[in-house]
Amino acid sequence: MLKVKNRLDKMRSWFDRLDPKSLRQIAWNLVLISLGSALCAISINGILIPHEFLNAGFVGLALAIHYFFPPLTVASIYFLLNIPVFAVGWKIVGRRFFLYSLAGMIIFSSAVQWIQVSVPVQDKILSALLAGVISGIGSGVVLRSLGSGGGLDILSVIIFQRFSIRLGSTSLAFNAILLTGGALLFTLERALYTLVFVFVSSYMLNVVVTGLSQRKMVYIISPKWKEISEEIMHEIERGLTIIEGKGGYTGRDEQIIYTVITFRELVELKKMIRRLDPSAFVVVTDTLEVMGHRIGTQPHW
Predict the structure, then answer these.
(1) How big is the chain by its Cα radius of gyration, in Å?
(2) In angstroms, rounded to a whole number, what is the distance separating the alpha carbons of residues 111 and 47?
(3) Cα 62 versus chain centre, distance
(4) Residues 6 or more apart whose Cβ sits within 8 Å of residue 88
(5) Domain extent listing, the chain
(6) 3.30.70.120, 3.40.50.1820, 3.40.50.360, 4.10.910.10: which CATH number matches 215-286?
(7) What is the pLDDT of residues 57-110, one digit of tens each?
(8) Count of CA atoms in the C-beta half-sphere (13 A) of 265
(9) The whole model's pTM is what?
(10) Mind listing the pLDDT tens digit for each residue in 204-224?
(11) In this structure, is the dihedral angle defined by the CA atoms of residues 121, 52, 208 and 109, taken in order, positive or negative?
(12) Using CA atoms, how far apart are residues 64 and 19, in angstroms rounded to an integer?
């Protein structure tokens, strides 16, 4: 009881500190959650239910229960399934993420209940692809906010925080178990169509959440390292580190430039390197997660 009281006191303190800027941020995040939930609802009611596909996470479980007991709506089942999740999340996730996710779960359930649309696509494989695109974008938009829609989203964020496993990868692994059960309870064909949907949805979620904002790690070896360093710091306005190295074959001392830039800055960097030293040796790799001022990618989860 004492822990619950302390957490409630912290929440009251958080609400007391709200100012106009914070209120605008809250409004923006609720807009993101609402938009993403609306897209997911279109995917569920317009494509998944008419074709009797399953879905990811708790929505997939809610759909399976709905197919067995049609009088129970997907929205009401999803809402009930989330109650124990939020009871656990109360102790694990941050209070801001918890409150946004609680709002997101209510918004998501309402969107699924009230947004009823018809998507005129009859081919099942095209329907699975389209549903995956819409649902993945919707889930990504929700997770671009400071909250989630509840269910598997909360679990994915916890795993991302603890183990740096991408959100879409967690979703894909979790739903492999769900689809195995779906193949046994329903038909293998339906499970395979759902697998296509889940794969596309997971890919689109990764694109929306980390796609164009993903950071690139760059190593540059060039005799003109000073000029390149100056351009990176003053034109691209990124920091860098000079690493002392030695050529394995030549034995010459080398200066290796190490820097982390955004995906959008990569084209500019490569043009600059070609202009200053076309023969420079450059290695570009993806980053999973970057922490730090200005260049960091960590969301506020």
Answers:
(1) 23
(2) 15
(3) 22
(4) none
(5) 2-211, 215-286
(6) 3.30.70.120
(7) 889 989 999 999 999 999 999 999 888 777 766 766 667 777 888 898 999 999
(8) 20
(9) 0.71
(10) 887 887 765 678 899 999 999
(11) positive
(12) 44
How far apart, in Å, do the first and last CA atoms of the chain sit? 26
Q: What span, in angstroms and rounded, lies between the C-alpha atoms of 167 and 175? A: 12
10 Å CB burial of residue 138 (0-12, 13-18, 19+) is buried
Nearest-angstrom CA–CA distance, 85 and 203: 25
The amino acid at 169? S
Report which residue type is found at 86.
F
Cα–chain-centroid distance for residue 75?
Answer: 22
Residue 66 CA to residue 72 CA, distance in Å, equals: 6
In this structure, are strands 241-246 and 281-286 parallel, antiparallel, or unpaired?
Answer: unpaired
- Helix, strand, coil percent content, the chain, rounded in steps of 5: 65, 10, 25
Cα distance between residue 88 and residue 253, in whole Å = 56
- Measured CA to CA, the distance from residue 52 to residue 78 in angstroms comes to 17
Structure token pair of residue 102:
């609680």
* Distance (Å, whole) CA 210 – CA 144: 9
Residue in 36, 32, 29, 37 with CA at minimum distance from that of residue 110: 37
